[in-house]
Specification:
The protein is of the alpha/beta class. The chain has one domain. Strands 1-2-3-4 form a four-stranded mixed sheet, with helices on both faces. Strand 2, helix 3 and strand 3 form a beta-alpha-beta unit. Helix 2 packs parallel to helix 3. The longest helix has 17 residues. The termini are far apart.
């Protein structure tokens, strides 16, 4: 694992420990020429991940972190709604232009 991935994995692990949560991260590439944007095609695979998590325990806490440099602006809200309907405790973060713009807690 390269150093960037190790840093990310460490930060995610630290967040999970501090909040007693499981973190779901969706990160689109932002390096040229391979930049990508958030789009409708991500909703179904994320749903499949949710189905495979053991969310029957009502005390489960999910932190959802989305990062994208653009794309369909309705998709983050669809994803947040989908996760919100699956868990009792949700913290939703998304990042636009290097700042955390929204911190929504359910």
């Amino acid at each position: 694992m390269n150093s960037q991935k190790k840093i990310g994995a460490t930060l995610i692990g630290d967040l999970e420990k501090e909040r007693g949560s499981q973190v779901i991260v969706y990160f689109t590439g932002d390096r040229q020429p391979f930049g990508s944007r958030i789009a409708e095609d991500v909703v179904r695979p994320l749903y499949e991940h949710l189905v495979n998590l053991d969310l029957n325990d009502g005390s489960k806490v999910i932190d959802l972190f989305l990062y994208s440099r653009g794309g369909d602006v309705s998709v983050p809200w669809r994803i947040a709604s989908m996760v919100e309907n699956s868990v009792r405790n949700l913290m939703f973060w998304f990042r636009i232009r290097h700042k955390v713009q929204l911190r929504y807690s359910h």
